[in-house]
Amino acid sequence: MSELRYRRVLLKVSGEILAGAKTEGLNFGKLKSLSKEIALVKQHGAELGLVVGGGNIFRGQHASEAGMDRVSADYMGMLATVINALALQNVLESEGVQTRVLTAIKMEQLAEPYIRRRAIRHIEKGRVVIFAGGTGNPYFTTDTAAALRAIEIEAEAVLKGTKVDGVYEGDPVANANFKKFESLGYIDVLNRGLRVMDATAVSLCMENSLPIHVFNINVEHNLLRLLRGEQVGTIVS
C-alpha cells in the first residue's frame, strides 16, 4: 500500500462525464472505466465520498430558463442525480467495491437517507459513499453539495473530475493560448469568476480551508497520482 497525500477525499463528477462522448444519457463504458479508477485508489487505502451531477439526464437551470418553475426544475435535477448514483453503484460493485447510496431526499426503496454519522460510519468500514439528491434544496448546485458533504465527512480535499486538465484563464477548447494555472487562491477564483465550482461552493471551501483539485478524470490513473501528491491539474487553496 503506497503512502497517500490525502486519505479521505470527496470526488465530484458531473453528469457530463458519465455521458462519455455523448451529451446525454449514460455511457456504460465510461462508468466502467471510472469504477476501475475508484477501485484502484481503494486498493491503495483511500477513503472516498462521491457526489454525482445529473446534467446528462436533466438540467434544472435550462428547464427554468425555458419557463419551468425553478423549484420544480431543481427537484427534477436532483432526481437525475439519483439515477446516476444508482448506475454508478451497480458498476462499482461489479468491480468489487462496496458502495452505499445516500440521498438528500428520502426514497427508502432505492437508497438510504443521508445521515452524517451513518455516512462517516460507511466510509470507516471501507465503503464508497455516493451522495445523491444534491443538498436536498432547490437553488443549490451539486458543486455546493460536494463542498458541503466534504466538510461534513471531514474530507481532506475536494477533487473535481472534469474533461480538462485544470483551470484556465478561459475555455481552452475555444482558445488554445489560454494560460493554465497550477495553483490559485480562493479569492482569485471568486474575483476572476473562474469556472472552478460555483461561488457558494468555493466560499464554503475557503471558510473551512478545504483545498479543491481540478483535474482530468478521463486520463488513466490521474486520480491515484493526485492522491499520491503528484502535480495533477490545478489546486485551489
Topology at a glance:
Layout (H helix, E strand, L loop, with lengths): L7 E6 L1 H5 L8 H16 L3 E6 L7 H6 L4 H25 L4 E5 L8 E2 L2 H9 L3 E5 L9 H11 L4 E6 L4 E2 L11 E2 L1 E2 L1 H7 L6 H9 L4 E5 L5 H6 L6 E3 L1
Parallel strand pairs: 1-2, 1-6, 2-5, 3-4, 3-5, 6-10, 9-11
Antiparallel strand pairs: 7-8, 10-11
Helix pairs in contact: 2-4, 6-8, 7-8
Q: What sort of overall outline do the alpha carbons produce when their principal axes are compared?
A: globular
Strand percentage, roughly?
15-25%
CATH class: Alpha Beta
Please, how many helices? 9
Mean pLDDT: 93
Provide the number of structural domains.
1
Strand order of the largest sheet: 4-3-5-2-1-6-10-11-9
What percent of residues adopt helix (DSSP H or I)? 25-40%
In the predicted model, the low-confidence regions spanning at least 5 consecutive residues are: none
Provide the CATH architecture. 3-Layer(aba) Sandwich
The third-level CATH topology is: Carbamate kinase
Order of helices and strands: EHHEHHEEHEHEEEEHHEHE
> What is the terminal separation in angstroms?
27 Å
Number of strands: 11
CATH superfamily: Acetylglutamate kinase-like
Structural class: alpha/beta
Cα-based radius of gyration, to the nearest Å: 17 Å
Largest sheet: 9 strands, mixed
